[in-house]
Predict the structure.
Amino acid sequence: MTAQNVRIRIIDSVEQLSKTRWQQLSRGAGPFLSYEFLHALENSESCTNESDWQPCHIAILQNQDDNVSAIIPGYLKTHSYGEYIFDHAWANAYVQHGLDYYPKWISAIPFTPVTGPRLLSDGQFLLTPELVNDVELALVDHAKKEFDEVLSSFHWLFPNDATSTQLTQSHETLPHYLTRYTVQFQWHNYGYRDFDDFLNALTSRKRKDIKKSRRKLSERGVRFTYHTGDEISPETLRFFTKCYKATYLKRSGHVGYLNDAFFEQLVESISDKMLIVTASENDVAVASALFFYDETGLYGRYWGALKEIDGLHFACCYFEGIEFAIAKKLPLFNPGTQGEHKILRGFEPIYCRSHHKLQHASFHSAVADFLQRETPHIANYFNQARNALPFNKEFVPTLKTTSVNLPNDDTYNQNEKNDEI
């Protein structure tokens, strides 16, 4: 399908599209691109023009009918918080030259640095260079008409391989996207039978360290309970949000980007994709972590504690997540961004990508130069993390990390941080 036989609609709420059609197009895209998750963000006013997360989704329709063929989730931003791809230095450079970096448009999942498709379609629709150009022109026109603003740039954050490959196709006349690399840490399920089977893949020393840490918590009277689906009671959710807000307030001086209404709506709509782990000390609840999951994997997103207990964070957020992923036979566990401490707990480094196009030609070139210099440092960081993995020699050849190629430092092409958990 080419750009010549489609129409582009820009919508400021998922409610303007059919829920059924959105669900059809987002099938297999993970829990965060579901209609319910994005609708909860908007309906709870966590993502609005007032929060500077103005929904600006792209609906692509075939000319001959009103059937939506593809959707690109997107937002107009007047800041860079909650994205996890840090471009504050780029924004500062604009200011220093008397230019406006905001607003900008991003295709991303708010507050959620999880790799996934950024083009939702039935698999028959291609994100051609011509179509991307038409989308950009439509966005520029929309920003000018609706807000009397000029968009500085376009950003696609954490796209999967398919979206990234299509987005970075070369074209003779159209401007190219720049590629930026970051590193996350994920746990992969290599068919483990149980947690002890996972531990057996680690070196003897690391296996003993983890067992000792868990044993000390057990001897202190710390226990963990799982809550999914109908087991997520109002009391369970209230305790989680209490922990979430208390920990955010301690770390950041505010109670978090997401409000009670957001979490409450999710429990009403997708509780079957939610896991809350509650940690109790001698039957008194002290901490809680919220995860999301489906057949694509387990995703650790939010955590909070009312009491400092040595080793509790790792146990509640990582080890209990691994236990759950093994029991559910989930392929991976993404616990959040950054955190070298995850390496020694069996989480492997992976490359993530983002793609950027700045409308100001000189700044676009300057960012390209910056990214070409940054990429080798990212690759070096990845190698250091890979060398520190705690798996035993016999198991190392099994790891997905061992077959990962380094990114090309030509940032015109593709190749495959703010800790919440």
